[in-house]
Amino acid sequence: MEDSEPQDSDNIIQDTSAPEDNGSNDSGPEETEVKSVLNPEGASDTAETLFMARNLRRMDGENQVYVRRRLAQKLERQQEDLKKKQESENKTKPQNAGNAHGSNCKLLIMTCFLLPSLLLAIVCLLSSLIRNEKELNYYMLGLSNFEMGQYESALWWFLKDLEVQEAIEDEAAQINARVGVADAYRLLGKTDQATFQFNTALQLAQLTGNLHGQMQVYFSMGDMEKEQFHSPRTAIQYYEQALALPENLGDIRKERMAYIKLGLANYENKEYETALEWDQKFLMISQNNGNKIKEITAHKNAVDSYKALGRPDQARYHYQSALTIAKETGNKQEQMNIYLGLGDLHRKQLHEPQESHKYYTEMLALAKDLGNKDDERLAYNRLGLASGSYQALGKLDQARSHYQSAINIAIEIGNKQEQMDIYLGLGDLHREQLHEPHESHKCYTEMLTLAKDLKRKNMERLAYNRLGLACGDMQDNEAALEWHQKNLMLSKEHENKNEPLIAHKNTARSYQALSKPDQARSHFQSALDIAMETGNKQEQIDIYLGLGDLHREQLHEPQESHKYYTEMLALAKEIESKEDERLAYGRLGVACEVMQDNEAALGWYQKYLEMSQTGEDKTEQITVHKRIAASYQALGKLDQARSHYQSALDIAMETGNKQKQEDITKSLANL
């Protein structure tokens, strides 16, 4: 029976971003610029006021308060200057009663003339401040919604901001707004609109000589190529154009961002050596700059490149370097992530289960210390995934214990998706390694209930598959057939042809176990049709094996079985599958033996023996020697038969297989 496996979910993905270290020399976001407010010498009061008000939207909160204070102080100075001027004029006039009346009249006229202008200036200033505060809010609201993943709302605010910037002809702000609009469009899947906005922003940035704007557009266009168009090669071209600009700008943060993006894009393009070169540049610039957060990220990116290159020792070195920094800075969350990565590395590539267990245990301790239930569950999950390693260590009970702990946490936090995944893993552990099909059946039943509750058709289908396998292991073939038929019904709706193929095979084997060979043959043939349609030669090999066994054992048609085994052998040689080739030789020998073609049977068995001797399966070698001995005996060549029986007996004694020793001794006595 075959498992229908979900995709592996514990692959490490390169870090694409990390928060800036506030203690570094280059604080601030990676991909945005905060422009300073200029105060050009010799500018008129009105021009300066408008310039300052227009630039309020580009500042942070402290700068806005500072500028508003400056504007208020300027207004107060203007009023004070006016008052001093009036007092000075009064002092130059003769101080007598008659002139006093005239002076008062002039003062009244001047006040009446200046007061409306002064009031108008105040109103204009306040209006400008209010308007620019709204402009600032438009952009910041767009950015806030964007960061929260609310791209429709972000788009609305960015479009409002763009409308304002076009009205006041602020070209630099227009570029920022258009990039915001374009990024929102691309993440909404509207790539045509995004492309138009990016191109417009780029043209404006080039026309005005705005290098920062050009770089911002190149980065975002590269991201669209990589993430939406799945073309990392084209993304690399945009990132390289962005990288050429910092040499003129002297912007270390942007240069570092270019290294990050180029490393990630080359990694996705499977250019791992090139990706590693960019990762190393990213690491160097982070070390020189003293940015510990970025240095950790750079080490982790280098890890992924080294892992992809099949160099786990170097990957381990960079993990350890990242871990040292995380400990120095007291970053427990990063320590936890690195322990997870180290555990996976030792489990998957270095094949050191004891080391992986150690790192997962460290991760678990930190997760409990931080009160992080999700990471605690993940640690238990990883300790459970290491069940294969526990089997080698004879610690399957520990694997089961960690799975159970993970279930308890998932139930406690109400995470039904995780409960479902853990029941699947725990069921597989009981069925495949603890050989407890009844316990596995309980786990798969819980999984099915949750899948239906969450309306997860893919997991419901997988639960049917596993329940069928568990019932098959319990020899409850009628129940197994029902589960596999339900799996088959749902699988037909799936776009992946491999799903119904596996369901047909499992249904065929259930019918075979129920001694219903005609129905079994029908489902094997349906599976074969799909395998040939999709060009899946490995599946064709497996189905030819099943059809051959069915025709030989239940339909009693050895000639037909020989035909299928021959097809199996040809495909095994074509795809260079030594295991399947060896198996085909054995089956062909059995088919010829049933047809009493002992010479042909002997030839196939000898090829089978030659290939089996390169393996470590001693039981298989005993079987082949016995088959060859029986063929020689049928041909009347008793000396050769005795020799192979003796070889089989020697191996049985070497392995301590008492039952085999008794059987072979009887065969020798009958010669």
From TrEMBL:
Q: Where does this protein have compositionally biased stretches of type Basic and acidic residues?
A: 77-92
**Ranges annotated as spanning the membrane:** 107-130
The record ties this protein, via Gene3D superfamilies, to: Tetratricopeptide repeat domain
Please list where the region (Disordered) is annotated: 1-46, 77-99
Annotated keywords: Membrane, Transmembrane, Transmembrane helix
Q: Tell me one Pfam family matched here.
A: TPR_12
Which residue intervals are annotated with compositional bias (Polar residues) in the record?
A: 9-27
Which PANTHER family does the record cross-reference, listed alphabetically? RAPSYN-RELATED (PTHR10098), TETRATRICOPEPTIDE REPEAT PROTEIN 28-LIKE PROTEIN (PTHR10098:SF106)
Name this protein carries in UniProt:
Tetratricopeptide repeat protein 28-like
Say which species the protein is native to. Branchiostoma belcheri
Taxonomic lineage from the root: Eukaryota, Metazoa, Chordata, Cephalochordata, Leptocardii
